Amino acid sequence: MDEMDVPLRVVTGDETSRGDVGSFDELVEAASTRLFRALYLMTGSRFEAEEVMQDAFLAVWERWDRVGDMDDPTGYLFRTALNIWRKRLRRTGLAARKAVSLAPKEDPFTSVDDREVVFRALRTLRPKERAAIVATGLLGYTAEDAGRLLGMTGSSVRMYASRARAAPKAVMEDPR
User: Fold this and answer.
1) Hey, where are the domains in the chain?
2) CA distance 31 to 52
């Protein structure tokens, strides 16, 4: 019969108190099924429940000289298991937050592809259109400032920049 096939029953603290548990082996025998069920309900995973249960039994076994003298070693075992589970949850949450913050915000390959598309589009432009769009669009100059730099009027820079913005649409849509 599998552990999960055993019907659940309500167990009071008196049934597995110090009177029934004289040694660590007796504690394991008396509390294993209940502890596993409780952990399975908390974790939702059989494997996680088994792992937490093993860690809890190990922690109690390491302190058995003190825990064995307690009035309710089963309560200490359950409290230990719960604390181990909480610690795992905190560590998992911290690891997830670190993974998210360490993950690159932008795919480097996408930025390389985007740059290639921009370079290809700029190569199709006439020199004055290319200069106007680079000065206003990429370098952030106003049309008047770009005009002074390029030796033309602000309205000419706006006209060339407008033509430059319209021209790459055909290039970007061409999958070549």
Assistant:
1) 3-102, 108-173
2) 14
In angstroms, the CA 78 to CA 16 distance is 12
Question: CA-to-CA distance for 105 and 59, rounded, in angstroms?
Answer: 41
108-173 CATH: 1.10.10.10
* Cα distance between residue 20 and residue 12, in whole Å: 12
pTM (2 d.p.): 0.48
- Percentage of residues in the chain with pLDDT exceeding 70? 80
Does the structure show a pLDDT above 50 at 40? yes
The region, left, alpha or beta by phi > 0 then psi within -120 to 50, assigned to residue 140 is left
Render pLDDT for 81-93 as a digit per residue (tens, 0 to 9): 999 999 998 898 8
